[in-house]
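Re-run requested by the PI after the first attempt was lost when the workstation crashed. Everything re-entered from the original request form. Ligand of interest: xanthosine-5'-monophosphate.
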Amino acid sequence: NVLILDFGSQYTQLIARRVRELNIYCEIYPYQKIPEDLSGFKAVILSGSPFSVRNENAPHPDLSQIRGKLPILAVCYGAQYFAHFSGGKVEASDTREYGRANLTVIKDGEKLFDKIKENSQVWMSHSDSIIELPKGGIRLASTTDVLNAAYRIEGEETYGIQFHPEVYHSTDGKQLLENFLVKIAGTKQTWTPGAFVDLTVSELKEKIGDKKVVLGLSGGVDSTVAAVLLNKAIGKNLYCIFVNNGLLRKNEFESVLDQYKHMGLNVKGVDASARFLDALKDLVDPEAKRKAIGNTFIEVFDDEAHEIQDVTFLAQGTIYPDVIESVSVNGPSVTIKSHHNVGGLPDFMKLKVVEPLRMLFKDEVRRVGAELGIDKELLGRHPFPGPGLAIRILGDVTEERVRILQEVDHIFIQGLRDWMLYDKVWQAGVILLPIQSVGVMGDERTYEQVVALRAVESTDGMTADWVDLPHEFLQKISNTIINRVKGVNRVVYDISSKPPATIEWE
Ligand code: XMP
């Protein structure tokens, strides 16, 4: 197990992902909350930080329990930390160094740079420079602009690097992490999907015993993988509830429910469409819609959960990014949109929580899903928001408008599949706009709905670029939509990236 101490860098999660990609397990802790018991850890990585070590309020945790006892790789701020507080010197750089650089000099025979050649490209992002190394420091590498790009401290397994090995632009970054973790710290590369499944299934058996568990399925990857894992551990004692909020894609409820049954899950489909539509009546404000949907879901789910006798646990498909975001050094991030599926259970349900995917990143969830034999198509599905089509229908959500959007969305998504574009896009959907536009049909003037198509590339939804779909495809889809869906006479394509535009329009 590897400990990553987070000083608030935007790249901390990326460090964890790279380590996991090496099949090595790691956990992120904020620097203020260093675990007291370090016996399970074989190595420590210190992250970068938005702070300067020269700031009065810069993070300055006591590392005496770690330093000299465990191998340390200190990245960026971490490297400056030792220089500043342990006998070296850090000063503001003349210019902020940001972007690609090359390691022009690498000291021979150092384990950290094994298999890494001179001129290797690295990614820099800092505005302070290490002018003097910490006491006992030995320079290991330099770039044209940065003399002390990497060092080690004599007599310890403490390494400092100014660049960011976790960023893709550091070409040998993964090799460097492997050198540190495997060659220097001796960690084992045994964190595989198979190992995770075996371990988790036995832990779940132990924790749950013969008690009953209830779980809400959404049709998404996370809840599905969580359900299959639990099913493997406790079988029929897992009660899955799949709620149709009437805001899903066309035919989605029926087809996914069918798939769940084929997977051997003990699942109950509940069609609560009318209840949700009722709750959405006259609501146009996006946050009001989200709240109404969230609350209705809780009511429906609670009603259903009461139907099951003696339930002890509530299972959730929470994944690692949701967990670490809530303990981030920067404090909980500002609510831009209230994603209601994080945050646990309402008090009145009084159930214990099990979250078998709590420690996994999204790509790991997919790999575990594949290991469990879940259908590729299901695992490769685009993310879909909890409030569903309600936040893609700008303005009033009515049965008729849901139906129109379902038709249009179906044509777009099926089109992406037919043109082999679906897997090239991270998320796609259609927005039904609250305006009408003028058109002509034959000799008649029409005044009908406008829809916007949206397709984005992303890795985690935090940032996204619009996808330049083939024009021929867009032309075909636009024609099909206008010809087939009565009430729509105009199709536009959203060419905005996030930031500043979010993926959803509401
Ligand atoms: P935005 O629109 O914030 O979306 O760029 C980022 C990702 O989050 C999804 N999203 C939601 N998911 N409940 C959810 O479960 C919500 O209220 C919600 N709002 C946005 C969005 O589809 C995208 O994948």
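Saved to the shared folder this time. The CA atoms of residues 36 and 65 lie 9 Å apart.
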